[in-house]
């Protein structure tokens, strides 16, 4: 998966062999999926867990019983269904389901989800149902149409249909009761419950829904549906009537719902569930009456849309081959059941473990890993109750430094403000990606090969696209494209996409607060000449200019500001009454990466330009625009690789060098890790941010650091050694690694968004029980926690495992080293903190000398007395406090008086001399 | 500076003197002045006048900084002492200064260092303008005498130079602080200069007073206070400080910083000085020299004094 270009060509040329090749590559990369017989998902730029795949083959036949009692059998379709993951799923996770050998679909709907997909022919219906297909189980644990979730009545019940639309009554396989005029529930609900369900001369079939609680919803109208099926429910429908191409192949990313998202469906780690894949193959019909009734004829229909056609107008499809009758006995018998299990819910630890949690504060990149790791800690009484409290890296860092939390998750070096040395233990290799959700034009599915270069990302971040005509008045950039989809540069990179501008195409949904992710993203931009020329005001070759508000913005930066102030002049009364900065409404950054993922998952841009007015009441409704219609989705957002893998979000390949685009996968992440080097100790080891130092010693250090006894000795030695100056601290232990984007550009295979998440903890003055917990966490997370899988304590997809050998060896060794140092808490009475804090160059002059006396009172009061003073002048590296105080003003203080004095005396002398001589020549003055 | 003005007035004003001007006419005795000839030598006049001006300006400033300002500082201390005595006397209508925030310029403690003969009222705030009245307390630290570390910044060369001899202190010397919560006796533990190690950590509940000033080196040491010296004094127990200290102080209040916010005020003072000069020029045409001298000298001196006070704010706060 190195060169995306190569892959594209392969796939375009040989779809099948390309998939095979990629399968080989994936298998080579992922040993966990090393079953060559199992299918491998096609390359769609989605990172996916590889464990617990599923595959099943089933032969489907449609039969008619003729007038004379003979049977007409249609050619059989042998359908193979594969699923990428079936175990330990989490709510909203998307798994890839693909199939071959189905009947080609016709009358393809632009939106196949929920009730929008009903008017199609020969689709593959995929539903999530409660229960399993095991006939040995009690009936309430078995899967039935009544336990399958649909988001609307029309998808499960046929209410008061004319005879021409009642083909189910001739289903050859159906029980006699289902062939009645009204069927589906016994007893049939009365007028009090379902007033419209039973009308004389019309046919009705209900497929009630049985909720997990046992409550039965008659599903005859909107009132008799479970609450999660309400109009405009929180989540868009996940069930789909998917399309098979003319070869009978198709694939879909199916989103599973746990009982957190859908309580009525009620799937969780205890309640087994199934994904039912029902290839609609046409209803088998019983012996017709003679002459044939209208419904007999309806049952025998074979579809009016040719295979591969679209049905944009939503014309009626032939019911016998439409998805609406998925519940009918013929179709239900054709189902392929994929049993799935869910992982522990996110609140497991809170419910099952009464101990107080130990919060680790910081990076959201850890979210998916922490979700799987937490139960492995809290359910083990020998361990502590681990909890990830997500916040910006800087906030987590500050909490850790101030003692508010035992450890922080950060993904870059942070500036030390406190006095204690801090170790960085590499804990996870992951990163960020630019996720997207882009549809191909003309109902051709989703685009899976997006490529972006730094300049395009810079254009998005600097709000240089106009969004819509409202943005055209923006001074300085009137002629810029409306959105990225109309930018010639983007079109050249990603040909074949729709060029209808949408407001969402002017924004890269990103974070509103500080994050190391933004820092690295902007650092990637900094290393590209074209992108920086653009940011600094040079127009691109197509004449697009940077938004003047962001011109020459300082990069890299960890927080992206909203700087634009342009308020459009418009005739729209709603906007006149609610003037706001248009470009900020377009960008509308959010607070967590998870929100970006959710927006991508729902194709719901966070563009806040909606402004509806009700002139009668003079009231306005402002806010987020609607979800994007299926078929014309276009959205970009910054996501974490963990989220992208969990939710099946496609990730863009980023340009490293001209013509080279690298997508995130295990290879490209590992290649980037190999480029990382330990940060050089600068001065007293204060990890000043953005210090792209590179040390050679680090890797060697790491290599031998695995030996704990050795390390302990080294630490002892270092501490005991009487030294002056600031280099006597633990700063050589557990330094962060630095990924230089310049190296990434040179390497061609490394992914620029690769980030290492560190567990940062103080090496001194951390309470011992906290220190033990942190050390235990680092050791567990870097060993047991690096086993790939979806289970408790395992490493989810989107992360590269840290191992003692291979490209991550240095990280692994560094982590063990830090674990030892954290545990040791070598709290000698040395004030090794002081020098580093005072040597910190960014402290304001004159402040450093004062600051320090404040800090010490916290530490080691008992050791202050006399044992120490003798040692302290030598061991305690306390010096260098005052040099700063002399810095700025000392010259003035030093010279002011003498200079004034000298000037005054010179003036006096001059005057006296002049007077003396003039008087001498002239006589007395005055 | 006004001292030269009559000279120049004489030169400038004399040529038009013969004109029918009521004031000169009333004082015919001044008529002889035109006898000072031009001699065609404007250059020397300019040099001489400039030299005089520079000498007066510089020497006045130096003189006030080093000597005259002691008077104003002593007076400020007297007033502050009275104010402080009242403030901590327990009058229910007066809020005693115990922090965490005290109005800038208010007295907060009485600092006594017997060995070097210091007895000063400490004021709140350490900007250059605050330390003119007495040693200033760094606002982000606890008050002197409270548990924790308190920092007091004082001048070493000008305005009474309360901390002139701070560098002579030795570990073991006594000093005491009276503040609103009571009296605390400290012992000096360390005198630090650039490069010296910090003092040992403070035991819990202890109080530390860090006295900060500047000192010079070389033959003109007392006139060149360019580097900072710290004196750490510890007391085993301090009073409990209130919470809510400000985390930072503005830049001018940091040690060795000056207060550039004084520039507008300085401009105003200089404008006033200019106005006085113009006034003198005008007055000289109307009144006799002694009268003008008598009238304008106090104004000019007062103005020069207060201008120098403002100039001081542009110099570092420990000088």
| Oligomeric state of shown chains | heterodimer
Beta-strand portion of chain B reads 15-25%
Q: Structurally, how many domains make up the residues of chain A?
A: 6
Give the structural class of chain A: alpha+beta
Write the layout of secondary structure elements.
The complex is a heterodimer of chains A (926) and B (319).
Chain A lengths: L3 H10 L1 H15 L24 E7 L2 E3 L5 E3 L3 E7 L10 E7 L23 E7 L27 E4 L20 E2 L19 E3 L3 E2 L5 E2 L22 E3 L7 E6 L17 E7 L14 H6 L29 H5 L2 E5 L7 H5 L5 E5 L4 H12 L7 E5 L2 H10 L4 E4 L11 E17 L12 E2 L1 H8 L26 H6 L22 H11 L2 H7 L37 H5 L4 H6 L5 H9 L8 E5 L4 E5 L10 E7 H7 L2 E2 L1 E5 L2 E3 L3 H10 L1 E2 L18 H9 L2 H13 L16 E2 L2 H7 L6 E9 L5 H15 L26 H16 L8 H6 L9 H7 L12 H5 L18 H33 L4
Parallel strand pairs in A: 8-9, 16-17, 16-18, 20-25
Antiparallel strand pairs in A: 1-4, 2-3, 4-5, 5-13, 6-12, 6-14, 7-9, 10-11, 14-15, 18-29, 19-23, 19-24, 19-29, 21-22, 25-26, 27-28
Helix pairs in contact in A: 1-2, 8-10, 8-11, 17-21, 18-21, 20-21
Chain B lengths: L4 H9 L8 H5 L15 H46 L19 E7 L4 E7 L11 E2 L10 E6 L20 E6 L2 E11 L14 E9 L11 E9 L27 H24 L2 H25 L6
Parallel strand pairs in B: 2-3, 4-7
Antiparallel strand pairs in B: 1-2, 1-5, 3-4, 5-6, 6-8, 7-8
Helix pairs in contact in B: 1-4, 3-5, 4-5
How would you describe this structure in keywords?
heterodimer; A: 926 residues; alpha+beta; D-Maltodextrin-Binding Protein, domain 2; seven-stranded mixed sheet; four-stranded antiparallel sheet; 26% helix; B: 319 residues; Sortase, Chain: A; 2 domains; eight-stranded mixed β-barrel; 5 helices; 8 strands; 34% helix; 18% strand; elongated; disordered N terminus
How would you describe this protein?
The complex is a heterodimer of chains A (926) and B (319). The longest helix of chain A has 33 residues, at 890-922. Chain A is globular, with a radius of gyration of 34 Å. By secondary structure, chain A is an alpha+beta fold. Chain A is built from 25 helices and 29 strands. In chain A, the strands form nine sheets. In chain A, strands 16, 17, 18, 19, 23, 24 and 29 form a seven-stranded mixed β-sheet that branches. Chain A starts with a helix and ends with a helix. Chain B has two domains: 2-39 and 260-313, no CATH class; 64-253, Sortase, Chain: A (Beta Barrel), CATH 2.40.260. Chain B is built from five helices and eight strands. In chain B, strands 1-2-3-4-7-8-6-5 form an eight-stranded mixed beta barrel. In chain B, strand 1 and strand 2 (118-124) form a beta hairpin. Residues 1-35 of chain B have low confidence and may be disordered. Chains A and B meet through helix 23 and helix 25 of A and helix 3, strand 4, strand 7 and strand 8 of B.
């Amino acid at each position: 998966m190195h060169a995306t270009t190569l892959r594209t060509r392969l796939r375009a040329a040989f779809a099948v062999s390309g998939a095979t090749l990629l399968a080989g590559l994936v298998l080579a990369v992922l040993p966990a999926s090393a079953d060559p017989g199992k299918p491998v998902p096609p390359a769609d730029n989605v990172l996916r867990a590889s464990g617990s795949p599923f595959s099943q083959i089933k032969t489907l036949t449609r039969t008619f019983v003729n007038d004379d009692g003979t049977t007409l059998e249609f050619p059989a379709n042998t359908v193979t269904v594969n699923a990428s993951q079936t175990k330990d799923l989490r709510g909203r996770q998307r798994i890839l389901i693909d199939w071959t050998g189905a009947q080609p679909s016709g009358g393809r709907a632009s939106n196949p989800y929920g009730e929008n997909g009903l008017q199609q022919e020969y689709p593959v219906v995929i539903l999530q149902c409660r229960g399993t297909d095991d006939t040995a189980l009690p009936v309430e644990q078995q899967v039935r149409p009544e336990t399958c979730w649909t988001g609307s009545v029309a998808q499960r019940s046929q209410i008061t249909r004319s005879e021409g639309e009642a083909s189910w009554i001739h289903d050859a396989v159906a029980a006699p009761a289902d062939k009645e005029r009204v069927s589906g529930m016994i007893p049939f609900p009365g007028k009090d419950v379902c007033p419209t369900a039973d009308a004389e001369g019309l046919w009705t079939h209900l497929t009630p829904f049985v909720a997990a609680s046992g409550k039965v919803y008659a599903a005859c109208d909107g009132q008799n549906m479970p609450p999660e099926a309400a109009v405009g429910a929180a989540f868009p429908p996940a069930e789909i009537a998917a399309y098979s191409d003319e070869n009978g192949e198709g694939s879909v990313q199916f989103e599973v719902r746990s009982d957190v998202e859908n309580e009525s469906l009620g799937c969780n780690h205890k309640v087994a569930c199934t994904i039912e894949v029902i290839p609609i193959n046409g209803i088998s019909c019983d012996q017709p009456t003679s002459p044939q009734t209208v419904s007999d004829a309806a049952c025998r229909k074979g579809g009016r849309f040719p295979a591969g056609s679209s049905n944009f107008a939503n014309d009626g499809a032939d019911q016998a081959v439409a998805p609406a009758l998925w519940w009918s006995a013929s179709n239900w018998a054709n189902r392929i059941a994929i049993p799935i299990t869910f992982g522990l819910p996110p609140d497991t630890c809170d419910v099952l473990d009464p101990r107080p949690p130990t919060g680790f504060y910081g990076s959201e990149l850890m979210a998916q890993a922490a979700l799987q790791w937490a139960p492995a800690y809290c359910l083990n009484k020998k361990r502590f109750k681990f909890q990830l409290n997500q916040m910006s890296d800087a906030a987590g860092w500050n909490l850790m430094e101030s003692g508010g939390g035992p450890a922080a998750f950060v993904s870059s070096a942070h500036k030390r403000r406190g006095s204690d040395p801090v170790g960085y233990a590499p804990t996870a290799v992951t990163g960020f990606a630019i996720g997207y959700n882009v549809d191909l034009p003309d109902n051709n599915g989703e685009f899976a090969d997006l490529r972006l270069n730094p300049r395009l990302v810079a254009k998005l971040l600097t709000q240089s696209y106009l969004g819509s005509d409202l943005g055209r008045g923006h001074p300085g950039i009137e002629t810029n494209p409306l959105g990225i989809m109309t930018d010639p540069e983007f079109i050249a990179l990603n040909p074949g996409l729709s060029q209808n501008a949408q407001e969402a195409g002017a924004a890269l949904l990103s974070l509103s607060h500080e994050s190391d992710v933004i820092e690295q993203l902007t650092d990637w931009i900094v290393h590209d000449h074209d992108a920086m020329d653009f940011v600094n005001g040079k127009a691109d070759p197509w004449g697009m200019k940077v938004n003047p508000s962001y011109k020459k913005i300082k990069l890299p930066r960890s927080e992206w500001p909203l700087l634009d102030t342009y308020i459009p002049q418009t005739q729209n009364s709603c906007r006149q009454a609610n003037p706001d900065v248009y470009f900020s409404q377009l960008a509308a950054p959010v607070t967590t990466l998870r929100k970006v993922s959710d927006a991508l998952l729902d194709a719901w841009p966070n563009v806040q330009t909606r402004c509806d007015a009700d002139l009668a009441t003079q009231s306005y409704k402002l806010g987020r625009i609607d979800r994007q219609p299926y078929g014309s989705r276009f959205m970009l957002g910054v996501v974490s690789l963990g989220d992208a893998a969990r939710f099946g979000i496609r990730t863009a390949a980023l340009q490293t060098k001209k013509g080279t685009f690298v997508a995130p996968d295990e290879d490209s992440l590992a290649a980037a890790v190999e480029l990382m080097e330990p940060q050089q100790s600068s001065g007293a080891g204060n990890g000043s941010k953005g210090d792209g130092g590179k040390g050679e010693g680090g890797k060697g250090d790491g290599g031998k650091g695995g030996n704990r006894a050795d390390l302990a000795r080294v630490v002892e030695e270092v501490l005991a050694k009487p030294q002056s100056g600031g280099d006597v601290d633990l700063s050589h232990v557990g330094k962060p690694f630095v990924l230089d984007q310049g190296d990434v550009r040179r390497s061609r295979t490394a992914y620029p968004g690769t980030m290492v998440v560190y567990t940062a903890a103080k090496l001194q003055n951390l309470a011992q029980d906290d220190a033990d917990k942190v050390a235990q966490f680092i050791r567990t997370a870097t060993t047991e926690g690096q086993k790939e899988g979806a289970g408790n304590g395992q490493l989810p997809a989107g992360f590269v495992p840290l191992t003692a050998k291979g490209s991550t060896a240095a990280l692994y060794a560094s982590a063990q080293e830090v674990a030892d140092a954290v545990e040791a808490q070598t709290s000698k009475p040395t004030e090794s903190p002081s020098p580093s804090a005072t040597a910190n160059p960014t402290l304001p002059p004159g402040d450093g000398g004062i600051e320090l006396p404040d800090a010490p009172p916290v530490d080691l009061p008992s050791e202050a007395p006399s044992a120490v003073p003798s040692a302290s002048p030598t061991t305690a590296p306390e010096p260098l406090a005052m040099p700063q105080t002399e810095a700025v003003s000392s010259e003035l203080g030093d010279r002011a008086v003498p200079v004034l004095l000298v000037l005054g005396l010179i003036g006096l002398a001059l005057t006296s001399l002049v007077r003396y001589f003039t008087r001498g020549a002239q006589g007395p003055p005055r | 500076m006004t001292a030269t003005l009559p000279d120049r007035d004489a030169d400038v004003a004399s040529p038009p003197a013969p004109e029918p001007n009521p004031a000169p006419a009333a004082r015919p005795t001044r008529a002889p002045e035109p006898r000072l000839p031009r001699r065609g030598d404007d250059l020397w006049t300019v040099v001489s006048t400039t030299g005089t001006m520079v000498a007066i300006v510089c020497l006045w400033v130096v003189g006030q900084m080093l000597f005259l300002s002691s008077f104003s500082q002593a007076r400020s201390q007297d007033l502050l002492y009275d104010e402080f005595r009242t403030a901590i006397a327990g009058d229910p209508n007066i809020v005693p200064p115990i922090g965490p925030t005290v109005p800038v310029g208010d007295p907060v403690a009485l600092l006594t260092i017997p060995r070097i003969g210091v007895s000063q009222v400490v004021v709140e705030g350490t900007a250059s303008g605050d330390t003119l009245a007495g040693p200033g307390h760094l606002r982000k630290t606890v008050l002197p005498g409270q548990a924790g570390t308190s920092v007091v910044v004082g001048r070493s060369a000008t305005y009474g130079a309360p901390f002139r001899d701070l560098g002579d202190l030795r570990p073991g010397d006594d000093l005491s602080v009276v503040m609103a919560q009571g009296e605390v006796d400290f012992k000096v533990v360390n005198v630090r200069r650039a490069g010296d190690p910090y003092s040992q950590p403070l035991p819990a509940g202890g109080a530390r007073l860090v006295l900060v000033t500047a000192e010079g080196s070389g033959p003109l040491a007392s006139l060149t206070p360019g580097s900072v010296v710290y004196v750490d004094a510890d007391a085993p127990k301090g009073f409990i400080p209130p919470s809510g200290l400000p985390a930072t102080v503005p830049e001018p209040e940091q040690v060795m910083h000056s207060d550039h916010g004084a520039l507008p005020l300085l401009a105003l003072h200089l404008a006033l000085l200019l106005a006085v000069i113009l006034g003198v020029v005008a007055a000289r045409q109307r009144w006799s020299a002694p009268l003008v001298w008598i009238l304008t000298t106090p104004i000019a001196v007062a103005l020069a004094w207060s201008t120098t006070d403002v100039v001081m704010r542009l110099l570092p706060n420990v000088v």
